[in-house]
């Protein structure tokens, strides 16, 4: 990777549709990415191990392995960002992919501008969070080492639960974090989607303390039916 926007990064496309692979190859190459391709799940796993890509675009509907099986195999040994590209738009499919370790998802048909933007975000997040003690978004600063949160230079008082929830979101900046993931990280493994009212209450608290306009959040946004996403603003 040559800069913070990911130019020069190696991207692996795993998709069985030649037209999709061609569109992605041409577009991503034009943005300065080095592109590798695979048209089956087995080939995708092999390419991932051979070329050590810095990001993978993965279709769920493959002819041999399912995309979920590919994702699970890769996650056994790699934390490379994975953006799922799928024609499946059901909430349960998105949640399953995210819970299995996907960083984001884009449904077909898709806009190339949106996909490229999500790729930039995922690459930037992977670069910055390697050893980033302070996460910044607009006027917000989260010091993970000292557990200090400041907004426009002023200290923000958070309860331990509010801080843990914010940390879980911010540490995955740009990524969709499912309700189940957040509940288990913050409240423990005994909690699942049935306890989502906890999240709604505490997300509301965080928005009141951190957002310029809590009714139109720009830091912590809702992915309906799936979870939440912390957005990094320049």
UniProtKB/TrEMBL annotation:
Start-end of DNA-binding region: 132-232
UniProt key word Nucleotide-binding: no
Residues with 4-aspartylphosphate modification: 59
Organism: Saccharibacillus brassicae
MF annotations from Gene Ontology: cis-regulatory region sequence-specific DNA binding; identical protein binding; phosphorelay response regulator activity
PROSITE patterns in the record: OMPR_PHOB, RESPONSE_REGULATORY
Ranges for domain OmpR/PhoB-type: 132-232
GO CC terms of this entry: cytosol; protein-DNA complex
Subcellular location: Cytoplasm
Signal peptide (UniProt feature, chain positions): none
Keywords associated with the record: Cytoplasm, DNA-binding, Phosphoprotein, Transcription, Transcription regulation, Two-component regulatory system
Domain of life: Bacteria
A Pfam match: Response_reg
Record GO biological process: positive regulation of DNA-templated transcription
Function according to Swiss-Prot or TrEMBL: Member of the two-component regulatory system KdpD/KdpE involved in the regulation of the kdp operon. Upon phosphorylation by KdpD, functions as a transcription regulator by direct binding to promoter regions of target genes to positively regulate their expression.
Domain Response regulatory residue range list: 10-123
Chief place of localization: cytoplasm
Keyword presence, Coiled coil: no
Protein's UniProt name: Transcriptional regulatory protein KdpE
């Amino acid at each position: 990777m040559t800069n913070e926007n990911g130019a020069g990064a190696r991207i692996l496309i795993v998709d069985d549709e030649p037209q999709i692979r061609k569109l992605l190859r041409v577009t991503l190459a034009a943005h300065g990415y080095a592109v590798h391709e695979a048209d089956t799940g087995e080939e995708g796993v092999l390419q991932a191990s051979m070329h050590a890509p810095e990001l993978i675009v993965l279709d769920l509907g493959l002819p041999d392995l399912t995309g979920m099986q590919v994702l699970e195999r890769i996650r056994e040994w790699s934390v490379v960002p994975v953006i799922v590209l799928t024609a499946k738009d059901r909430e349960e499919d998105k949640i399953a992919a995210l819970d299995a370790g996907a960083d984001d998802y884009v449904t077909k048909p898709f806009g190339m501008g949106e996909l490229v933007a999500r790729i930039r975000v995922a690459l930037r997040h992977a670069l910055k969070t390697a050893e980033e003690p302070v996460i910044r978004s607009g006027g917000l600063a989260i010091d993970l080492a000292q557990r200090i949160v400041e907004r426009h230079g002023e200290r923000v008082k958070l309860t331990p639960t509010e801080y843990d929830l914010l940390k879980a979101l911010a540490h995955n900046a740009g990524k969709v974090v499912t309700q189940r993931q957040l509940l288990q990280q913050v409240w423990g493994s005994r909690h699942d989607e049935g306890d989502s009212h906890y999240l709604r209450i505490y997300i509301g608290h965080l928005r009141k303390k951190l957002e310029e306009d809590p009714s139109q959040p720009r830091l912590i946004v809702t992915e309906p039916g799936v979870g939440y996403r912390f957005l990094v603003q320049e």
